[in-house]
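Re: the 274-residue chain
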Amino acid sequence: MRIARALEQPSKKTRGPDPGMMEPALKPRRQRSWTDLIPESHWSTYQAAIDVVRARGTPFMLGGGFAMSTYIRRWRETKDIDFYVLPEDRDEMIEILNNAGFNDYYNQLPYDRRWIYRSIRDGLIVDVIWAMANRRAFVDKTWFKRAKPARVRDERLLILPAEELIWAKLYVLQGDRCDWPDVINVLHATASTLDWDHLLERLENDVALFRSALVLFDWVSPRRAAEIPARTRKRLGLSKPAPATAAEEKRRRNLLDSRDWFAASHAGHQPLEV
């Protein structure tokens, strides 16, 4: 190497290598993020919604695909963004979006206005949500106190707490839509950090529903499910899952859906398929 040879030559005084001989320093590469997969045209619309809401100072959290992607570190294209707000702020949010050119989606596709307001602009959906779809629970201040700060592109935002995200998705188990794959993905990503006691308190008399999801989680990913605290398992009447190899776990996941749905084994440079 030229620099090494130059340094080996005798010299009457110590001097550094000739700057002209130095190789240019390599800039560290920025690690790719799931947010890089959001199409620029989509992000500009989402950011426009974020900007107008922030300008009014109305508190909100992001849920849906953005919240899930924050936890699992993988992107899934849904062509929508969900703003979770307190029930008393819903009318203000609707007014803000209407004034910014986001039009009510009801005339194109009727929806249940009792828990959600759906608006559309540039072919993308911006939802305002203040309750679960089954109205089992409404957004309250505890959701905001426990919200996760996160950076999405250059925006610092609040994301739904993992516990509330799982809680809401547990009830989406219809013939035309099932959010349990999302539940499994979020559980896999947060099993060691989840506030299990808080989640069980939220569920109240619906703990049996969550227990069913955990039985599935034990089967799909027993190695990660082993991180569920023993006292939580005892409270739910669940034994520790039987060990399984990585190959066996993959076989089980493929039995449920051969498409690319499981975030932990998914290539991060492409969106999830399901």
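Residues 188 and 224 are 6 Å apart (CA to CA).
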